[in-house]
Amino acid sequence: MKIGFIGLGVMGRPMAKNLIKAGHELLVFDRMNAAVEELAAFGAAASRPQEIAAACPVIITMLPNGSHVKSVMFDEKEGLSHFAPAGTLFIDMSSIAPNDTKDIAAGLAKRGQRLIDAPVSGAYAGAVEGTLAIMAGGSDADVAEALPLLEIMGGKITHIGPTGCGSACKLCNQIMIAASLAAVSESMMLAKKIGCDINKVFEAVKAGFAGSNVLNAQVPRILEHTFQPGFKIDLHLKDLRNVEAAAREYDAPIPVTEFALKIMQHLHDEGLGDLDNSGVAKYYEELAGMSYVEN
Questions:
Q1: Cis, bond preceding 230 (omega within 30 deg of 0)
Q2: Catalytic residue among 2, 17, 156, 170
Q3: What is the pLDDT of residues 28-80, one digit of tens each?
Q4: Which of 22, 153, 167, 180 has the CB geometry, 3.0–4.6 Å to 98, for a possible disulfide?
Q5: Which residues contact 256 (CB under 8 A, 6 or more apart)?
Q6: Catalytic: 170?
């Protein structure tokens, strides 16, 4: 199948490569020439958005935020919706606000085009290995049509509900990860302050009810003191701001999110927004006045 793929960032590049490996013909676009060149060397065709829209019955977008997706879809000169025929299926795998997703779906529907929102979780490793968790929103028929492609990129695909529900599920996911990163960092700093061996605390806790993927990923990063992205603090901060906006819209209480947002905003203000979100640990080092790895 000829597939358009727009957005070749940290996650988009390996996701696109997995589609090529599976035998699909990809037309790709990104504003970063190096990313396009990397995919072209892998077998994709570098193309302009209007060329992608005209040639591809399915177009995947993987972009930083809702304003980027809206621009790619509806820009007056290069917007995909102006060049794509009726019936085109758009799969937006970006992490954006549910209301943005609904607005985009409504704009595409006016032109007879379709949208499913299918954000992902599983970080860079999951994108490379094709084991991402994918949370899909859209009609039964549209999600079923997209499923063979989603299964190439993901290990677990869940149809959450109508359009916008995939984006909503991703926000829930981001709340849980942010809270867990903070809780793990906080508990390991307490253990360090008391004089415990963090390795031993980790070994004990991960075998019990508190064991989790976040715990298993976060403690080794703390002990190695390496916070290379991965998934950047600034991107997680963007997601938590979307949570905040959705909570206002739907009158939902989010005290845990508000605290996590405060931590990530502080790290952003300190110039650390390009660190992996596991860099939340550095907030606790600052509060404690010591490093996790000090003797």
A1: yes
A2: 170
A3: 999 999 999 999 999 999 999 999 999 999 999 999 999 999 999 999 888 99
A4: 167
A5: 175, 179
A6: yes
